[in-house]
């Protein structure tokens, strides 16, 4: 119902310097109020008897004030609540964008590392093929060359015989003719033909699934895992050390003819080269079956055996301290790979991811320094690096007659078991010491007595503790993670990890324990 007071009030619409005319929507007269039901301007007559009769109306000034109050309320809420909330979310999204960029940059960096690693693996396969092909080429050419020389010699002899026979036919000397002995039968027996044993290079390409290549007895396969298998691998790899802590178990116990297995070098996932006190090198499988033996007496002859390792192509190399040589086993024969120029004794060796050979050498420096233990790096036949002093000119390794055991981590850190100092020393590729580990965090009963050392696919550093009959596991930064002792490794010495991530532990008892520690 219309308010009666509206007709009596003096309502001014001229609020501006140049007021605009306000009109009723129904009769086009000047309006004095707003109809609240119709939400439109209304004049006095329309309120009394027109279309806005009995509707509730409101002064124009009051409507104006109410709208201004709504504007003020809206502005306060936008300014004090909504804008800060949007700003907070905007900051969060900026942070999320930055984090996303960083994470994808890290993925790209890791992808490039893996690209190089995978390319290197492919290069290793074809380097092996090239090496085998070159070796077979030389063997075949040597055999053919010998046959070629033999034939040329016989041809020369036959030509000489023809000349002598022709002279006899022209001579009248009876005695000379009577002394003639026929060589016809000898020449008729022509040397047997030599068949060149050409290896066949076979390949099979199933894009997206499998790449296979084979030459002679060597074969390699690159296989794409199914997604379910890949997810399982990722799940297994992301397990924490805490989850894996109680899962160490012995997969196999292998008996050997050695009294003490000093060194182990895994081949694939079910075999390993080993050496011990009997001075032989033996290739043995996980069932204890001996596949091959390199003996110290007889071909191939080893003067003194001081450590074994595998090249990135999977070939066996070993030290020979008597002649300061590193030898390699190829096609059942040992060949000299490196002859060191330094006046020192070779004690152990290791092959890096890049193919460099690290050698532990005990060398006499001078009368003041005396003997020092050093690590030398060879690239092919060239000496590239010597590591034995830190940045402050202090010796990195303690003097002593025990061998240094070496390994390399995925970040190219050199991990050394300094058996003379009873510590593990980890250095950058440049030789700068990063940290030392003395075994105390493990809280074992006896003092730390490190021997063999190895790293795994998770960049963990694993070192044998001979006297405490256990294996220490550290992360790549030297943080102690745990000890594996529930598998009762019997005075562990040599260590290696196979392609399945299992730890092969050579023990003083002459046994090898294959341990699933992850």
From TrEMBL:
Supply one GO molecular-function term.
zinc ion binding
Q: What are the ranges of the NHL repeats?
A: 434-477
Among Pfam families, the record links this protein to: zf-B_box
The UniProt record lists the keyword rRNA processing: no
GO terms in the biological process aspect are:
proteasome-mediated ubiquitin-dependent protein catabolic process; protein polyubiquitination
Taxonomic superkingdom: Eukaryota
Write the record's keywords in alphabetical order, separated by commas: Metal-binding, Repeat, Zinc, Zinc-finger
Coiled-coil stretches noted in the UniProt entry, renumbered to this chain = none
Segments forming domain B box-type: 19-60
Name the InterPro entries on file: 6-blade_b-propeller_TolB-like, NHL_repeat, TRIM-NHL_E3_ligases, Znf_B-box
User: Which named protein is this?
Assistant: Tripartite motif-containing protein 2-like
